[in-house]
Amino acid sequence: MGVKYIEQVKSIVLLLLILLSFTLTFSIWTYSPVLQKNEAAIVDISIAEKKNFEDVIKPYRMIISQDDAIKGTSASQPIEYVLKNMENWEIQTVELASNKVNTDQINDFVKVPNRASFFFAAEVPVELLGNILNFADDNFPNAYFNRLIIDWNEDISDSMTLYFISTSQQKIYKATAEKADKLVFTNRIVEYGETMQVYNEIVRDNKLSLYVSSIPENIGSYTYRIKEIESDKFKDALFNNPSLVRSNPVSMSEQQFTDDSALMNVNFTYKSLHYVHPASENENPGNPVDLITNSLNFVNEHNGWTDDYRYSRMNTATRQINYQLYFAGLPVFSRDTLTEISQYWGLERVYRYYRPLYTIHVADRLKTQEVQLASGQSIYDFLSTSTDTNMNSIDDVLMGYYLSRDDDQFLFNLEPCWYYLESGSWVRVSPELLGGAKFGLE
Length: 442
Known about the structure:
Layout (H helix, E strand, L loop, with lengths): L1 H29 L22 H4 L4 E5 L4 E4 L2 H11 L3 E2 L3 E4 L4 H9 L3 E11 L18 E8 L8 E7 L4 E8 L3 H14 L1 E8 L2 E7 L3 E12 L2 H8 L7 E4 L4 E5 L4 E5 L4 E5 L11 H14 L6 E8 L4 E8 L2 E4 L6 E6 L4 E7 L1 E16 L2 H11 L7 E12 L5 E12 L2 E5 L1 H4 L8
Parallel strand pairs: 18-22
Antiparallel strand pairs: 1-2, 1-5, 2-9, 3-8, 4-8, 5-6, 6-7, 7-8, 9-10, 11-21, 11-23, 12-13, 13-14, 14-15, 15-20, 16-17, 17-18, 17-19, 19-20, 22-23, 23-24
């Protein structure tokens, strides 16, 4: 009897163990852990704005050729009107028009009546225009341009001709634009032309012509209380795991952020940032379309377009691409701080990243006044007669802003000045250089 009782107990225990095993197995299968909210993992890296291709690939000058004169401007409104209007055009196949043109032929293209010419700071792959304009054929040639010319010939059709000129490669591509509503477009162009300055063409032997204003112009001068961008925003955006980043002061004005793979250095006096990811370095040449696309997307990932930055330089050998700060339609240069966003691209990611740590866009404007600048023709004449400047080495002359820091480092002055382009660098024609010349600069 005792043995039978023991066997019954063993059976019951065995049954209970089997039920417990089923229960545990079911619990494991259906278990959904309640995760505690990790506040550090939810990081706001939205610094400013995102941009599209048309926001950063912009010309810095428009020249309109009419029967009686050449007019020019750097103002944003007329330039943006034309570019916006072009988005509605149906552009046909881009084809090679001339495989080798000389400088005289390029100069002549600008002077033909009923043409608008747009000057870009750096050569743009034609393929990228497929992200901005409406092309009927998306098979683009491997072509580049730094001048875009619109020709509205006088036939009755609604078509116009586009010329894409590379001044460095000396090639011209062309395409026809249909559904362009030519009458509305040309009427507006003529209206803008009436308010634009007369420009002089400075013709030079075996050199591209320079296009400069013929009379003085009043330009705004500004003082701003600069708004700095929090460096922690970039730390959260650029490092894979911001919670593991170590922060160390380098000096009174510098802070360094590091993890096991990258380094970010912030200079609070210079208001700049330098980020490097050494393991991604790549010495192979870059693809221009990829460099522009990747650089745009990279800054968009952290909404890093804090001001009006425009594509300005590219070096495919070093995989470098630059975006220049613009203000009121004019480029901004400085010795006191960075005015460019620079990227060097490595293996599928950015290798180096330099950029300003301030924004003018939302800064406090404290003072505004008008300054009369001399004509571009006067500046050219002064450089050619009163300085040792090699005029054959000058590739362009234009107005820009000189950004300087006040004694209070949070106050920045934007002073309109003349610049000339020499060997790839913009050189300021400073008031000190001009001395007592009566050009309206004092």
